[in-house]
User: What shape does this take?
Amino acid sequence: MIPLLILIGQLGSSLLYYKRSERDLSLLRREVLVALDIAKLVQMLQEERAAVALNNFLWNMEDQVQSEEQSQVGLGQEFIRNISQITSSQLDVDDLNKALNLSTRFAATDTALEGVGTWPSKLDSWPGDFFKSKLSFQIKHGVFRSNLKTGEKTIFQVLKWYDYINSFILDYIAYSIHVSEVGGFYWYIIALQDLLRATEYTGASGVYAIRYYVSGNLTADNHRSYCILDSLQEEYLHQTYNSMPDITQKLYQIIAEKDIHWNIYNDSRAEVTKNMPTSPNITKAVKQFEAMFMYTSALRKILVEMADNIKMLVDEEAENIKYHCKWPIIMLFCLCLSVPIIVYLSSKASYSMRQSSRTFDEQAENLNYEKRKTDGLLQQLLPVDIIAKLKSGEQPTPKLYESATLFFGDIVGFTHLTAMSTAGQTIKFLNDLYNLFDKAIDNYDVYKVEIVGDGYLVASGLPYPNDKIHAREIANMAIRLMQKVDGFKVSHRPGYKLQLRMGIHSGSCVGAVVGSKMPHFSVFGDTVNIAALMESTSEPMRIQMSHTTQALLEEFGGFNYVLRGQMSVARIGDVTSYWLLDKPHLNAQVPNVKTPLETAVKK
Assistant: This one.
């Protein structure tokens, strides 16, 4: 179920992404269309600025001619004749009239203004209340035009007005088109904005070039303004190259086209940049104006083509998104139909898997339980480290234990008791007794080595060495066993008094695993023989220990014992033995022994 929900979430996310992309592209298309209408207005204002600037210079020249003395009349006539010659022979008459005729230029600008469907909204850099609506701007701009011929507006005021308006509109275009992340239109939009800027600065710098040819030179401030504007138009043109390398070829075509007069425009840029004083040349002024007019018109054609390409790309991407958008819808529909079936099958499969998992867990738990039981039984028969070696396939090697204590216990009269009991009674009696012993020795650091008939062998210090405390552990255990035996009742012989004979010895011995089919851990060495001798020569309900065990107990203290005497052991020599007492008052009840040496020792 979770994978289905994830798939539905992914499909829903894809569908939302495509819908957002579709809305984003639709908004981008509207922004581009609005920006193109406003860009058309900018183009007309740029052309109008150039025409107004040139006519302003010509008006000034005409006023100068009319105000000079009669000797200067010839100069005015020569100026008018030069204009006529340029118009009739060197320039296209229709293009020049179109460029210089202010009525034509004003009408073209008004037409572009009427074509703006959405007027720019108010921004932080709002130029004034006159720009709050298309009508208020049209009124303000009409008043400006009416003051041109009267001379109330200087050329600097003219440039300032057009630059001010164009700069704001270009800023609006730059910020009104948002950079969409859909379709990869980023570089197209950036190139469009950069080329608009380049066209604006080309027209603005051209006005200063016209003034240079009409006046013969530029003031320092005007020359600095020209250099800044010319550098900006070149910089924005280079940025257009970088954003759209394909447009470079189109710009080269503009340069190579004869009708654009690129050489005239480029040469005039070099002359104005040098700003060398020269004689006023109206012919060059008009030629420069026409070259600039043709060049900017060519740039505007590229702008229109770029805008058309953006609209085409937006439309193609919108169709592509609509095509891809239908697949998530189809898949969601199919999922809605198939989800009930999948849910039913998944629930059945999940139930079956849960049942199988539950069965597997139960079997694994049973297996672990049986393994723990088996390990527990093995640990009762063999030490843990030896079990690990046998499981890994290794054969445990005999190990020498430098210091350990062994305990032997034997039931007094066991043969006579078994003779009076059945086999079943004997087995039950031994199970009851040794279960009692096994529970008692769990409280001490000891290891039960083996049981042979009525013999009970326990060790401490092996198979896990425990320093010197093995003697103390065995001594405490022996006293505890003697107390347990003292109160033990034979179930099938209630009146029978059971007695135990015990012996203890400390020393070194060897522990090893004997056998392979039924491996058994056992101990070997003289320590085992002496411990067995201590038990066999002991007396009922007495604990006999060797002098080595007594010496170890002496270090710990807290034990009561009496000297029994010495005995001779083959291959070993004389061995001194002691009685380990469980209670202090037993010191006064020392039994008769065969050896004459007897001294009571108490600590």
